[in-house]
Design goal:
Elements (H helix, E strand, L loop, with lengths): L1 H12 L5 H10 L5 H10 L3 H10 L7 H32 L3 H14 L4 H37 L13 H30 L3 H14 L4 H11 L30 H9 L3 H12 L3 H31 L3 H14 L4 H24 L1
Helix pairs in contact: 3-4, 4-5, 5-6, 5-15, 6-7, 7-9, 8-9, 9-10, 11-12, 11-13, 12-13, 13-14, 14-15
Length: 362
């Protein structure tokens, strides 16, 4: 009894680990069987996990016959259905030029295939398009930002009528220079980081930006040249573009926000809207806005964590739809919390697989 209790406590401590590792540990401790784990994985839409566990079962195992039947009648048909679904989805997303979704679909199809060479080639093609699109857009953004930084460098020149060494302007120039140097350090750090992460096009982007800020820098030029030679065949690097003429836009009057508006939303439990209003209020009255923002963010953190945990409970109970709903709430409240985002992404993938299997059965 004590030994079993010790095993259960160990499993409890390891619940934060990946699901496969916990399942494998449960099997090795004799708390469950490969067959039961396979059935659970199958009902969660984890077809390849189910297949892996079934194939581990030896002929001498009491579950062997049932496992082979389950593999033939349930798992293999489901695998082929999902393979067709994701292959078709990849083609559809590619046709719509949604490269990221197409890449993901082809990757999932390849994971389900026993001969994935062609699907992996499609995935590779989509990955190149994703990387190209990402670089093109980031290059445009970075080009605009760097020009603004360089213009800011020249902004604090004393006007006619002041001494050229006017103290106030000199202090402002010193501050700008310090910020500029920090910006350059960050740019170079990003170039090195992406070079180490084997993302040569992004390392090239930030090396190029560093050269824009510090023309002629040898280390940046060397890195830029090296990264240009490291990208896959077919990759096209952007070039400096002349800025397009700006269109005249009609500026809308800013909506005035008062503390009572924020408080009203807080009382209604509309925390996301309250945060948006509080940020607007901060632009005109930081003294009133900051305490409200503190309370709002604290409440959002509590509600988001509660929703995330509720999603985990629903997932363990194999209620995928409820799990996704809870995780969606958590992400809506805290979209920058990577744990919430990853859980929602995995939940949606499982939900999609289960819906695809049901649709195939009709």
């Amino acid at each position: 009894m004590l030994r079993l209790l010790a095993y259960m406590m160990l499993l409890f401590l390891l619940t934060a680990c990946a699901g496969n590792r916990v399942s494998d540990l449960s099997i090795s401790l004799g708390l469950t069987s490969e067959y039961k784990v396979a059935q659970t994985a199958f009902h969660q839409g984890l077809i390849m996990d189910a297949r892996k566990h079934l194939l581990r079962i030896k002929e001498s195992d009491k579950d062997y016959a049932a496992a082979q039947r389950f593999l033939k009648e349930k798992v293999e048909p489901a695998r082929l259905k999902l393979l067709r679904y994701y292959a078709r989805k990849g083609k559809a997303e590619e046709k719509k030029r949604h490269w990221a979704k197409a890449e993901e679909a082809y990757r999932m199809a390849a994971e389900l295939s026993q001969q994935p060479k062609a699907l992996l080639a499609y995935q590779k093609k989509m990955n190149l398009k994703v990387r190209q699109l990402r670089l093109n857009r980031l290059y445009q953004q970075r080009q605009q930002e760097d020009k603004a930084w360089l213009a800011w460098q020249r902004a604090y020149t004393p006007p006619k009528g002041l001494f050229v060494d006017d103290a106030a302007f000199a202090h402002a120039r010193k501050y700008v220079r310090q910020e500029f140097e920090t910006h350059m350090d960050h740019t170079w750090s990003l170039a090195q980081y992406y070079a180490q992460q084997d993302q040569p096009e992004l390392a090239w982007l930030y090396a190029d930006a560093f050269l824009r800020l510090s023309p002629g820098d040898k280390k940046a030029q060397d890195l830029k040249n090296a990264m240009k030679n490291a990208v896959p065949h077919g990759f096209v690097f952007p070039t400096e573009q002349r800025p397009k003429p700006k269109r005249k836009t009609i500026k809308l009057a800013k909506q005035t926000v008062q503390a009572k508006d924020v408080e009203a939303l807080m009382q209604q439990g509309k925390w996301v809207e309250a945060k948006q209003k509080a940020l607007m209020l901060r632009e005109t009255d930081a003294t009133a806005a900051d305490p409200l923002l503190h309370d709002i963010q604290a409440q959002i953190a509590v509600i988001a964590e509660s929703a995330y945990q509720a999603g985990n409970i629903a997932f363990r109970e194999e209620n995928i739809d409820d799990a996704v709903k809870h995780w969606q709430q958590a992400v809506r409240l805290k979209p920058d919390e990577q744990t919430y985002v990853d859980s929602l992404r995995r939940g949606k993938q499982i939900q999609e697989r289960l819906k695809a299997l049901k649709a195939e059965e009709k």
